[in-house]
Each structure stands twice: as C-alpha cells, then as structure tokens.
C-alpha cells in the first residue's frame, strides 16, 4: 500500500479531491476528521455555516463531555476547528448538482466545479413548515424557525411554539427569557421531549403546554397578531393572541441533490447500510439525512466516524 | 457610508455576517438586539421584519445573511 499518495491539500483552487463531504454538521466534520487523519485529500462543502444546524441550538446538554451544556454555536466551532486541524478544506459554497454516473464523480457548486473519487453526503435536515394558511406570509414577520436569532423581537409579548419535542421545548425555555407568555402547541396527546425538559417547563410560570392541538392558521395585518389553535379531538378552534410563533414541528431531509440518483425511503431519507454505504458505490451518507432511527448530535458523530473510515477503505481498495 | 449590522449574541447567521464584513475589511457598527431591546423594536419598524441579522446602509436593507447580495451591493469581487 502506498501511504504517500494522498497528501492533504492546502490549495484552494484544486479541481480534484480524493474525498468530498457535502455538509459540515457533526456527521460531515467527524468524517473529515477521520479522513484527515488517514491523510486523505478532503474537501467539505457548506452552503450556510460551518458546524451545520447545531449552530442554531441555544444550548446542547446531551453531548458527552459537557454536563453543564455548551452553546450550539461554540460546539459547531469546536467541531469545525477539529476538522480543519487535520487538514480538511472547508469551502463556503453551495453544491448545486452532482453527476454520479461518471468516474470520478462531478460536483458543481455556486463557485465552479470539481471532481472527487468518493462523496459523503451529510446534508442534514431542515425545519418543516406546517403548511397552514398565511404561514409563508408571516415568516420573518412574526414566524421564525430560529429562536437563538429572533427571540429578542418578542420581549414582553405572547408567543406560540409549535412542537413539544426536544427542540421546541428547549427553545421555548430560551424564549421565556424575553417573552411574557409562551404556549407550546403539540399535536400528540403527550410531549415527546426528554423528561428533564418537561420538568423545566412545568416549573416555568411563563410556559403552558397544550397537547392534542394543532395550529390551523395565522392572523394579522403587516405582522402576526394571533394564531388559530384547533383541538384535534373535537375540532374546536380558539384564537390565541401572539406576536411570535416559532416552529419546531419536525424535519424534512435536504435530499435535493440526490433524490433521483440514490435509493431513498418513503420519507425521502437516504437509505444506507450499517457501513453508511448508499445504493451507489463510492457514495456514503451520514447523519440526519440518512435512514437513522434517532437524529441526535451523538448519533451523527457515530455515523460520520463510520462513513469516514469506510470512505478511506474504499479509496484504498480495502475490503 | 455607515454600515449598521443588527445582531443577536447567539445567532449563527449574525456571526457569519460579522465574519464576512471583517474578512473584507469593511467597517461596520454592530447593534446587538439582545442587549438593546429598543433596537429590536426600531428594527421591526424600519425593515418590517422580525429577524436578524439585518444590514443597513444607504437605502439598502438586507435581512438575513445573503453573501451574493452583499458582494453585489458592496461591490466586492
């Protein structure tokens, strides 16, 4: 085996890489760490912010090593620096198209194109819109998907948070530093957040949890003024005065680049085996974008380690 | 030309906007809405939006971090 052929690149204009990672969340950056330590010439493409969606989380409390919690922004920065330390090149550009029918694979970006011998897809998920009347109209006019960005706009106001999973409840707790009152609306008859978070909202006088309800509409003139809430058991609708609504009602996979090229499950997530191999040889996937039963930073890290290791084996021809 | 950048301490897109301006040696005045709640109200009135980052200069207002738009309006190549 030739241990010297794939030196890590320091140039930024290079047109061919041994490995390309699309997405720089925990999965992509972990894969980069493993590839970098294997001296594989690796590029990471990130269209928004190095660190990925993690950087939007106000406080991460379930990632080992940080019992007191760490801000998502800081954790994302630590992951990014770690990947860069082992030589990965991060390009802040969007990948616009992939050609997986050629060897090496072709990658088109908003800043030119390049080729790569293998690709790891770690594009993650986006917040799902709830698809009710006037939702689009009020985005950034009361409706937000990022409490860490926009919560201060609702100082002293009533706010609705959609979804009582970990994200919704954690962000509601953060918003309570600003808002007068928060109603968490959950379509199921129970919250799905961790019990420790449920304890915190139960102790927070500013927060009420409304289960078995959905948001059925948004109302207002220039800005959001109120939210219609429907009881899923009797269809009764009531209107809650709220100038802010934060939506954490699930996720959709960011699969645009490969939806016609790889096997996806019925919900649009990339199907992989336990080695993070997709339906196409040389293409791996890791993190929230794949068919994993549990989408967490910790699980994405595990996926990224496997994907990085398997990509290395693929490049070196190791079975 | 004075560039005003409205941010929130914990907002990752604001961090990116700040880094972009610094990387291109563009001077700007930062107003953090979590420290100055009045600035959030003022911003909502000025832009008709409830989101940060916001960049204001001349007659331009850019809501969110839009690198291409910033490059075009600030004539950065």
Outline the fold blueprint.
The complex is a heterodimer of chains A (319) and B (77).
Chain A: E1 16-22, H1 26-37, E2 42-45, H2 72-85, E3 89-91, E4 95-99, E5 105-109, E6 112-121, E7 125-127, E8 143-144, H3 147-150, E9 158-162, H4 166-175, E10 181-185, H5 195-203, E11 207-210, E12 213-220, E13 224-231, E14 237-241, E15 244-247, E16 251-253, E17 283-285, H6 297-316
Parallel strand pairs in A: 1-2, 1-6, 2-3, 6-17, 8-15, 9-10, 9-15, 10-11
Antiparallel strand pairs in A: 4-5, 5-6, 7-16, 12-13, 13-14
Chain B: E1 4-7, H1 12-23, E2 29-32, H2 37-47, E3 54-57, E4 60-63, H3 67-73
Parallel strand pairs in B: 1-2
Antiparallel strand pairs in B: 1-3, 3-4
Strand count of chain B: 4
CATH superfamily of the largest domain in chain A: FAD/NAD(P)-binding domain
- Are there runs of chain A of 5+ residues with pLDDT below 50, and where? 1-12
For the largest sheet of chain B, list the strands in their spatial order: 2-1-3-4
Listing every helix as H and every strand as E from the N terminus to the C terminus, the arrangement of chain B reads EHEHEEH
The name of the CATH architecture of the largest domain in chain A is 3-Layer(bba) Sandwich
Number of domains of chain A: 2
CATH class of chain B: Alpha Beta
Structure description:
The complex is a heterodimer of chains A (319) and B (77). Chain A has 2 domains: 16-126 and 251-316, FAD/NAD(P)-binding domain (3-Layer(bba) Sandwich); 129-247, FAD/NAD(P)-binding domain. Chain A has 6 helices and 17 strands. Chain A has helices at 26-37, 72-85, 147-150, 166-175, 195-203, 297-316; strands at 16-22, 42-45, 89-91, 95-99, 105-109, 112-121, 125-127, 143-144, 158-162, 181-185, 207-210, 213-220, 224-231, 237-241, 244-247, 251-253, 283-285. In chain A, the strands form 4 sheets. In chain A, strands 1, 2, 3, 4, 5, 6 and 17 form a 7-stranded mixed β-sheet that branches. In chain A, helix 1 (26-37) runs parallel beside helix 6 (297-316). The model of chain A is unreliable at 1-12 (pLDDT under 50). Chain B is an alpha+beta fold and 77 residues long. Helices cover 39% and strands 21% of the residues of chain B. Chain B contains 3 helices and 4 strands; from the N terminus they run βαβαββα. A 4-stranded mixed β-sheet of chain B has the order 2-1-3-4, sandwiched between helices. The radius of gyration of chain B is 12 Å and the shape is globular. Classes of the chains: A alpha/beta (319), B alpha+beta (77). Chains A and B meet through helix 2 and helix 3 of A and helix 1 and helix 2 of B.
């Amino acid at each position: 085996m030739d241990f010297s052929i794939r030196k890590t690149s320091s140039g930024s204009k290079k047109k061919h890489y041994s490995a390309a990672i699309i997405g720089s969340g925990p999965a992509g950056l972990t894969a980069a760490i493993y590839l970098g330590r294997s001296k594989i010439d690796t590029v990471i493409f990130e269209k928004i912010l190095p660190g990925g969606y993690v950087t939007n989380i106000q406080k991460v409390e379930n990632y080992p090593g940080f019992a007191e919690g760490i801000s998502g922004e800081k954790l994302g920065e630590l992951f990014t620096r770690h990947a860069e330390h082992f030589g990965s090149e991060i390009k802040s550009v969007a990948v616009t198209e992939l050609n997986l029918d050629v060897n090496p694979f072709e990658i088109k970006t908003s800043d030119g194109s390049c080729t790569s011998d293998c690709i790891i897809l770690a594009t993650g998920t986006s917040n799902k819109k709830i698809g009710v009347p006037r939702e689009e109209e009020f985005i950034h006019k009361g409706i937000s998907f990022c409490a860490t960005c926009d919560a201060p706009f609702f100082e002293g106001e009533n706010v609705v948070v959609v979804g009582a999973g970990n994200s919704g409840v954690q962000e509601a707790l953060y918003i309570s530093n600003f808002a007068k009152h928060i109603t968490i609306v959950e379509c199921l008859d129970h919250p799905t957040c961790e019990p420790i978070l449920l304890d915190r909202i139960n102790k927070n006088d500013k927060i009420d949890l409304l289960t078995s309800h959905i948001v059925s509409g948004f109302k207002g003139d220039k800005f959001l003024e109120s939210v219609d809430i429907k009881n899923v058991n009797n269809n009764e609708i009531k209107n809650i005065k709220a100038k802010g609504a934060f939506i954490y009602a699930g996720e959709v996979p960011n699969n645009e680049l490969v939806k016609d090229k790889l096997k996806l499950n019925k919900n649009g997530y990339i199907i992989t085996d336990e080695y993070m191999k997709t339906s196409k040889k040389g293409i791996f996937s890791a993190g929230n974008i794949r068919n994993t039963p549990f989408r967490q930073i910790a699980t994405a890290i595990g996926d990224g380690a496997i994907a990085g290791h398997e990509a290395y084996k693929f490049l070196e021809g190791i079975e | 030309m004075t560039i005003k950048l409205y941010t929130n301490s914990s907002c990752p897109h604001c961090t990116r906007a700040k880094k972009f301006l610094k990387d291109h040696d563009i001077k700007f005045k930062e107003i953090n809405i979590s420290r100055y709640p009045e600035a959030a109200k003022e911003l909502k009135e000025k832009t008709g939006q409830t989101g940060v980052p916001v960049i204001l200069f001349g007659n331009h207002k850019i809501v969110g971090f839009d690198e291409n738009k910033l490059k075009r309006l600030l004539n950065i190549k």
